[in-house]
Design goal:
Elements: H1 6-17, E1 21-22, H2 23-32, H3 43-58, E2 64-68, E3 71-74, H4 90-98, E4 103-109, E5 122-124, E6 131-132, E7 138-144, E8 147-154, H5 159-165, E9 177-182, H6 202-217, E10 232-233, E11 235-236, H7 241-257
Parallel strand pairs: 4-10
Antiparallel strand pairs: 1-3, 2-3, 4-9, 5-6, 5-11, 7-8, 7-9
Helix pairs in contact: 1-2, 2-3, 3-4
């Protein structure tokens, strides 16, 4: 099957399913159906941007209709739906979706990072290419096994530097994993966007606070994630330089024995 463009792939998925879908689910279906094999760092954002730009630029000629926040269908499936408000541009759409928190990582392993002067905090979406979150800012948790032992924030310093400080302070031997929640979104180029969302909304703030507590503490009686929490989770990728460092250390040990 030839590689489809984003727009063609989205239309095919929505037409096949015959029901409205969230853009993150559309992205996963595109991958599982093999409609695309080449993805940037932020495939879900590419899907959202493609749909929003089509609606904005093509109006009633766009094949897409927005059903609710982040949820879309194809026009011929809902011929009686009319747009009642201006459709946001892609950046506005993504800000509306994620709120204050735009990316996060859960239970990343401390020993998957080479703690150099500027350690790489590498993560990726399930379909995307690796992203370095060293410069991310927000809040973080340090874990001992599955137990949270410390909660911190990073505002003036990058996340990578704050975490590095904890391998030489009083917390050094007390944590083996960490989770983080960042305010900077990831561009499709794989770089962090340092443009902050200054739109303050008290309901959004409260929803974000609830979501952080649910995600970080995982209370057993909460059956779902926090309301309106659609930040993108990134899975940890081991720093490839770790293996090089281990080989170097092994060679040095062999030299001493010879």
């Amino acid at each position: 099957m030839p590689e489809l463009g984003w727009k063609q792939a989205i239309v095919k998925v929505l037409t096949t399913t015959g029901e409205p879908m969230h853009y993150t689910d559309i992205t996963e279906e595109i991958a599982s159906a093999g409609l695309k094999t080449k993805f940037g760092a932020t495939p879900a954002a590419s899907v959202a941007a493609t749909i929003s730009m089509s609606i904005q630029n093509d109006g009633d000629n766009s094949p897409f209709i927005k059903v609710s926040r982040g949820v879309y269908t194809v026009r011929d499936k809902t011929p009686h739906v009319k747009r009642r408000r201006k459709v946001p541009m892609p950046d506005e759409e993504l800000k509306e979706e994620t709120g204050f928190i735009n990316a996060f990582g859960m239970y990343w392993r401390r020993d998957n990072i080479l703690w150099s002067s500027t350690p790489k905090l590498l993560g990726q979406q399930q379909l995307g290419s690796p992203v370095d979150f060293y410069g991310q800012k927000g809040v973080y948790l340090l874990h001992d096994g599955s137990k949270v032992i410390y909660v911190g924030r990073t505002t003036d310093q990058p996340l990578g530097l704050r975490l590095k400080q904890h391998i030489s302070d009083r917390l050094n031997g007390r944590w083996d994993r960490f989770s983080w929640f960042g305010i900077y979104p990831v561009l499709d180029t794989g770089k962090l966007s340092t443009t902050r969302n200054e739109q303050f909304n008290i309901e959004n703030l409260i929803a974000t606070m609830e979501a952080l507590l649910i995600e970080g503490l995982e209370p057993p009686q909460n059956r779902k994630r926090g309301d309106d929490f659609s930040a993108v989770e990134f899975l940890q990728v081991e720093d490839p330089d770790i293996q090089k460092s281990q080989i170097y250390d092994l060679m040095e040990q062999l030299k001493k024995k010879l």
